[in-house]
Write a structure and sequence with these properties.
By secondary structure, this protein is an alpha/beta fold. The chain contains seven helices and six strands; from the N terminus they run ββααβαβααβαβα.
Length: 193
């Protein structure tokens, strides 16, 4: 886990995701979560960023470890960016929704504000499954009254030049674009310390 210290007793933003947030295949410090502290500093926000993302993580894994992560980091804000691996593996969508909802409720009980990050699947999974998968995030955000980043890779998902050779993980050049997608929704949630 990457911990980036801030001065004093800054509130914590915990990024809780999978390889797209863990910086899979990127040079150290190149991931969007590593760019976030500088963006916070540049806009005069005093927050500490903890990246509790794990490559390969599913919503079930996230549900199973959320209590420990909340206890360890006591975040004010949780950027919840899980679900992509569930979708790519064709997991039951009701189970995915229930796991995400359990994570959201655990955060709420600890007074952590959740920023939900949506994902989309490649079209080869079929229109019915991909639309229902994407709808999970929108529905949860509405039901739990959460801010939502509709799609983490919005604006460049169809640009192969911004993805590593596996076609799944964005390159270092794409990380500022991911940060911008998150920042637009995160910025209004932040408080000056």
């Amino acid at each position: 886990m990457l911990m980036l210290p801030a001065a004093g007793f800054a509130a914590t933003i915990m990024v809780y995701g999978d390889s797209l947030s863990a910086g899979y295949g990127l040079p150290q410090q190149a991931g969007w979560t590593n760019l976030l502290p500088q963006r916070l500093h540049d806009d005069s926000f005093d927050y500490k960023v903890v990246n509790a993302s794990i490559s390969g993580e599913t919503t079930l894994g996230g549900k199973n470890r959320i209590a420990q992560a909340l206890s360890a980091h006591q975040p004010a804000i949780v950027i919840l960016a899980l679900g992509a691996n569930d979708g790519l593996r064709g997991h039951n969508l009701e189970t995915v929704r229930a796991n995400l909802d359990a994570i959201i409720q655990a955060c709420s009980k600890r007074n952590a504000r959740v920023l939900l990050v949506g994902m989309r699947l490649p079209p080869n999974y079929g229109a019915a499954y991909t639309e229902k998968f994407h709808g999970i995030f929108r529905t949860l955000a509405q039901r739990r009254q959460l801010p939502l980043v509709p799609f983490l890779l919005d604006g460049f998902a169809d640009n192969a030049a911004l993805f590593q050779a596996d076609g799944i993980h964005p390159t270092a050049q794409a990380q500022p674009l991911i940060l911008e997608n998150v920042w637009k929704i995160l910025r209004p949630l932040l408080k000056r310390q």
